């Protein structure tokens, strides 16, 4: 499922959406960062999704760049701490402003499994779960990957509990489509929505987005 768009074209998309303004970096700087990502990947890497590191633009600020049915993306009201969800151990995010995520897949075949159940399956397949920033970055390039009954979780990101308490918050990030009910508001019907689901809950319409690696 991963995008085959050239990296330069992907950066053009991000610039057209306002990445320079959001990041406080000009287009020249961002183009150099994209070239660095390609150079780090090397000629043996067959392209991938150009991911925006959360240190450049955190997920809460990247989400409104998403578009569907003429409506911008939004974060659910009970996830004001979205930017506190970080990459879990074993999910090695490159220390670069922009980097490549290879062979991205929505994980449709894992629908109706809980995050707890899906995590070891991805590991057995040699795949790494996407972080929420990576999931958003993918949809900025391929918005049609978010479709009714075909949405996905980003279990590569979780919120650690307090420094004195081991483990993670039971919420896990997911990206799906608002039906315009409840606190979302009717004006947000069909908009991309960054929210959460419980670690041990199953959903028939949520896959588990993953990749083969990051470079």
In short, what is this structure?
With 215 residues, the protein is an alpha+beta fold.
Description:
The chain contains six helices and 14 strands. By secondary structure, it is an alpha+beta fold. It has a domain at 56-92 and 104-214. Helix 1 runs antiparallel to helix 3. The chain is globular, with a radius of gyration of 16 Å.
Termini separation comes to: 18 Å
Coarse structural class: alpha+beta
- Catalogue the unreliable spans: none
Q: Work out the radius of gyration.
A: 16 Å
Individual helix count: 6
Query: Which percent range describes the beta-strand content?
Result: 15-25%
- DSSP strand count: 14
Largest sheet: 5 strands, mixed
Mean pLDDT: 95
State the strand order across the main sheet.
Answer: 4-11-10-8-12
The geometry reads as globular
In percent, how helical is the residue content?
25-40%
What's the SSE pattern? Answer: HHHEHEEEEEHEHEEEEEEE
Give descriptors for this structure.
five-stranded mixed sheet; 26% helix; 14 strands; alpha+beta; three-stranded antiparallel sheet; globular; 215 residues
């Amino acid at each position: 499922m991963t995008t085959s768009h050239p990296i330069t074209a992907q950066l053009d998309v991000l610039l057209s959406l306002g990445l320079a303004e959001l990041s406080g970096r000009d287009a020249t700087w961002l183009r150099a960062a994209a070239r660095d990502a390609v150079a780090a990947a090397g000629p043996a890497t067959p392209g991938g999704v150009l991911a925006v590191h959360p240190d450049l633009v955190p997920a809460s600020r990247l989400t409104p760049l998403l578009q569907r049915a003429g409506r911008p993306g939004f974060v659910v009201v009970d996830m004001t701490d979205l930017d506190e969800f970080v990459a879990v151990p074993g999910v090695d995010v490159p220390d670069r402003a922009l980097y490549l995520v290879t062979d991205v897949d929505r994980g449709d075949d894992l629908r109706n499994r809980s995050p707890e159940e899906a995590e070891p399956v991805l590991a057995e397949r040699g795949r790494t779960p996407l972080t929420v920033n990576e999931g958003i970055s993918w949809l900025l390039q391929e918005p049609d990957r978010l479709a009714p009954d075909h949405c996905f979780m980003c279990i590569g990101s979780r919120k650690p509990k307090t420094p004195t308490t081991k483990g993670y918050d039971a919420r896990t990030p997911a990206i799906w489509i608002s039906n315009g009910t409840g606190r979302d508001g009717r004006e947000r019907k069909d908009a991309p929505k960054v929210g959460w689901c419980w670690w041990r809950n199953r959903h028939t319409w949520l896959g588990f987005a993953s990749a083969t690696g990051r470079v």
